[in-house]
Amino acid sequence: MKCPGCEHMNDGGNFCENCGTRLVPGGSESGSSQARPAGLEGAAAHAPIPAAPQPNAHVENVKNVSKMYFSYFMEVLKKPVAATQNTNREQLVNGLISIGIFALIIPLIIYLGLKEAGVDGEFMSMVIKPAFSYAIFILLIASYSFVAVKLGKVPAGYTDVIARFGSMLIPFLALFLLAFLMSLLGMGLYPVFLGIGFMGSTFIVPPLVISSFKRDYPSGLDTLYGTLLTYLAIFITMGAMAAFLLSTLLDLIESKLTSFFLF
Questions:
Q1: I need a labelling partner for 147 at 20 to 30 A (CA). Which of 48, 131, 137, 207 fits?
Q2: pTM beyond 0.85, yes or no
Q3: Which residues partner with 2 through β-bridges?
Q4: Digits of tens for pLDDT over the chain (263 positions)?
Q5: How far apart are alpha carbons 52 and 37 in whole angstroms?
């Protein structure tokens, strides 16, 4: 092996016998490259590099929306009226998320309670369909509030009212979430929180939404009368829904009795 310092030829070892310089095994490296099959370096250079796994775009969007909604939820929960005073259509997605969660909790609690009691039922018929109906009921209340706002000659759009209504729901949504947690823990007070949340969403949120839009527009229908008209529409809707539910229940009982006597 040739010394890189004095060019003395050494028989072996790690250091030069003449000057003591550390020997670099260059020959073995060149030998290994000569022994390498032709074209191997080119093949290695052009070999495809495995791509790193890309995150799912839909999953990432859901994560981002969830993070933004949680921050928005906590901000509104601290000061509901002040935080939603200037809420508009830019927060429509957050408002709709609040309405969706709000509509889902009651049938979900009932479903889990019945399942724990040994009563089986389809998730679609016992949770999804009632939640959809309840979401329509909440949107109807928001729509009545929008009519009152327009009668007050306020230049607000429907999406502005829906976004603000959904934001005002957050404190009562928090009560629903607390009731849901209490039901999972087997605490018997959860119906109280459900009742407060339902009454608040039905009779407290509409006047708050109407007054938040009317504060800068004194002309048009007064907030008090707009609220009374909204309450009247709500009671009519609740009466129609109660009559429909009662009729459905009576038809179900009648069909059961008929099948029982025929058997």
A1: 131
A2: no
A3: 9
A4: 677 777 778 777 767 777 767 776 654 444 444 444 545 445 555 556 665 566 677 777 888 888 899 999 999 999 999 998 888 999 999 999 999 999 999 888 888 877 877 777 788 888 888 889 889 999 999 999 999 999 999 999 999 999 999 999 999 999 999 999 998 888 888 889 989 999 999 999 999 999 999 988 889 999 999 999 999 999 999 888 777 666 665 665 666 566 555 55
A5: 30
Shared domain check, 130 and 258: yes
Asked if residue 237 belongs to a domain, the reply is yes
Residue 180 maps to a domain: yes
Q: Which two tokens stand for residue 167?
A: 């934001």
CB 21 within 8 A of CB 4: yes
Pair (7, 135) in one structural domain: no
Query: Are 142 and 161 spatial neighbours (Cβ–Cβ below 8 Å)?
Result: yes
Q: Which residue has the tokens 């009545």?
A: 144
Give the count of domains, the chain: 2
Number of helices and strands in the chain (H, E): 12, 0
Range of the domain at 217: 79-262
Range 237-249 burial, b when 16+ CB lie within 10 A, else e: beeeeeeeeeeee
Q: Is the dihedral of CA 76, 82, 85, 87 positive or negative?
A: negative
Cα dihedral value 124, 129, 135, 141, nearest 10: -160
Tokens read off for 184: 């999972």
- 62 inside domain: no
| φ/ψ of residue 215, rounded to 5 | -60, -30
